[in-house]
Each structure stands twice: as structure tokens, then as C-alpha cells.
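Lab meeting, action items carried over

1. Structure of the two-component assembly. Owner: GW. Status: complete.
Input record:
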Amino acid sequence: MRIGTNTGSLYALNASNGNMIWNYTTGGLIESSTAVAGGNVYVGSDDGNVYAFGPSSVTTLTPTTMPSPSPTSSEPPFTPALPSQSSSSSSRSPTPTASPFEKPSPMTSPSEKATGTPNPIQPPAMSQEVVYGAVFAAVAAITIALIFVVRRRQQPRLSSTATSPSDGSTGSSGL
Amino acid sequence: MRKTSVLLAVFILELLTSLLIGLSTGLYVSASSSGDDWPMFHHDMTHSGYSASTAPNTNQTLWTYKTGGEVYSSPAVANGKVYMGSGDGVVYCLDAYMGGLIWNYTTHGGVESSPAVVEGRVFVGSNDGNVYCFDASIGSKLWNYTTGNNVASSPVVANGRVYVGSHDHNVYCFDASSGAKIWNYTTNSWVSSSPAVADGKVYVGSADRNFYCLDGSNGALLWQYPTGNWVESSPAVDNGRVCFGTDGGYVYALNASDGALIWQFGTIFSVLSSPALVNGNVYVGSNDNNIYCLNGSSGAVLWKYDRGHWIMSSPAVADGKIYEGPVCA
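Predicted assembly:
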């Protein structure tokens, strides 16, 4: 069904007047809604990809045959139709009278692909744990380093001050 | 003497390294814990669709991630991770900055529900009929509840409770930590609309052509509004108004406390898109190809933009921009 013509674009519009700021054409329809977080924009497409847009390019993790960004929309001719009845291209088109219910599998047997035992007590987020660990390690390293530095620098001084009284005494006796 | 200076140099180097580690982790903390997450469908429990985040001015892609099916689930972003479902039945957790896979979980049906991420837990529905709760960090399943049909509705989490609709005609309320069902309310058709929660009330549409307001604590019906058309659009609540669209092409604004009609606005085709409520304005897409900006008080059109395509995706607003993905067929 998806033969290259069914493309969908993400549009960024000016909120005050509706003028288009930019758009991006994906290889499939866009039914997913956009999320905006941390200065980036995230959206899913029926081409199977999740797209992240942002001010600076970091990396492309999973290289895919991604359509190139199109500054101007060049979508194919479109014939509007009542979507509820006619969006036959999508098998999930809502038809409450004839429910295409995918038979639910027994509750107890969803494949446990993700590892880990069910734990009602929520551990802290992994990233935070790692960060706190790293900060603790850094602080510990600094403290140890400081102790060593102070001890190393104090050792010669202690020996010199230990000898100074005798030097002083000899000096004073000399006077 | 010489040995001492060498040792000193080593210690200074160690100090510098430690400082660098500390600085970089500090930067990472500030980046990951920024308060501009997008933790659930349409951003929050009222479905405002608004983020205080900055937003890009260009269409430059940071990364893409290929799943095994169509991605109609909307991404949720929390603590530097992106969560979404796919038609391949898998719930994905990706690194928000690099796009790398952190964990995934395979269900037995397409996942068109959008995840909600709250307090280290991910809540999402699947077309295998289940509502799932996962550990947000490692993806282990904490609980699931099997409803009688597809769960395409996106869960909303408020005050330790999860609210979600099912195609088995019910609106469900679960305890977020245990997954125990607290109540359910039965409508006369599918509930694919995602509930919105405000002031302890749950607002949701049904394909039985009614719009419902339920008591969040016990599921009692507070009021209902007959629209004459399926309500698949998810509502948004703001300033004592609840807004939603219907398959009949109307956008409604009702009084959130008693369900009285404030205004209605007619477009030509279905409004499956969910409105965004920002600064007193209503932003909504229609299958008549337009995205509309309406005055929230009167429903008057402030502007509209015709893009020649259906609009099923719901608009997001941030940084003075609207992001909207149209559908063309």
C-alpha cells in the first residue's frame, strides 16, 4: 500500500499567525503527535521511523533509507474523503460496529523480553544513579588526592621544623 | 626531592581528571533533569499540548530510529529518554540525545497508545488488550492488566492513579504502583480517546457519541454531553473549559464543571486531532486539511492554515511554534 507516494510531513508553524517556519517530509504518514522536550522535537511516522529534530546534529544511530528534507511541500495530489469510513489503508481504522479485535493473549504470557524481575519498589533512574556515583567517585578522588598532596608536602617541612629547635638553640648559644 | 615532585604531578593530574569528571557529570545532570520533559500524550494530565522547552528553528535531524512497524504512538520524553510504541508490538526506550536503544519490550499487539512516564514508571496500552507498567530505567514489567479489547487510548497518570480507555467500552482507573483496578465506567462503545484529568475529574470521549465527565475517585458519572458523533479526539482542559473534536467535524468547548456548551465550531470533516490549549487559544487540526487557531472564549477563528492534507496528528506548541504532522493518502 505504501508505494512511495504516501508521504507525510511534519510542519513547524508560527503560533501567532500560522506561517510555515519549516517542514520535513518522512517516508510515511504521520499519525503520531509531536513531543517537544530539551530543545528537540520528536515524532513517529508510519514509515517505521522515529525522528528527532534539534539544533545540532549528533549522530545517526540506525541508518535508514530516509527521505531527504524537502524545504517545500511536494506531496502528491490528494482526494479528500470522509476519513472514518474510507481510510482503508489503515487496518486500525475505527469501526465500532465491527470490532477488529486482535485476540488478547493470556495475561500471564506476554514475552518477557525485557530482563529484570518485577519489583514494586521503584529504583531511582539509571542515569541519575550513574551520575551520582560518578560525582561521589570524583569527590572521593579529590579528597584522597588532597590528603596525599598535603602529607607529601608536610613531610619535608616536619623534618626541617624538627631540626630547627636544635638549630635555634645552637644559634642562640652562638649568640 | 625528584620523586616527590613526580608524585605531586601525578596527584595534580588526578585532581584535574576528577574535576573534569565532576564537571561533565554536572553538565549531564543539568541536561537530563531540565524541567521541560514531555512525559505523556499531549504533555500533561490536562493535555495542554504545550511545552516550556525551546524548539528548533530548522528541520535538521538529530537522529532517526527504525522500528519494525508503523509508529503512530506519540513519543514521551523524560529524564533524557524517549519512550514510544510501534505497530510491531514493541515498546521502545531510546536515548533522547543519541537515539540508541536502551531497552525494549515486546507485547502481543500493535502499540498505538502513547506511553506516560511518571516517577520512574512507564504506563502504556497495547492492542493485545493489556495495560502495562514498566520500570522506566530497565524496562522490566512491574504489572499488567488485561482488558477485554484493544487499548489504543493513551494512559494519563494523576495522583498515583492511571486512567485509560479500552475498546471494551470501559474507562479504567488503576493504582499506579500495584496495578489494582480501582474502578471502571462502562460506556456503550470504544474508548480510544485518552482521558484528561483536572480538579479530580476525568474527561473522556467515547465512540458511543457521548462525552463524559467522571469523578476521578470513584468513577461516578458527573455529567455527559451527547455530540451525535464518535468522539475519538482526546480532550484538553484549561480555564474551566474542556475542548475536544468529534468525527462529525465539530470542535466543542464545554464548561468543565457542568458540561454546559460554551461554543462549538464546525469544520468540514472529522476532527480526530486533539486540541492544544495555549495562552487562551485553541489549536486543532481537522481532516478538512486545515489547522485552526481559535479564540478559547468565543471559538472565533484567529487564523487557519490549509496544507492540503488531512490532519490526524495533534498539534504541539512550544517556543512560539506549532508542530503538526498531517496525513495524506
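2. GW to write a short summary for the group page. Key points so far: The two ends of chain A are 108 Å apart (CA to CA). Residues 1-5, 58-129, 158-175 of chain A have pLDDT under 50 and may be disordered.
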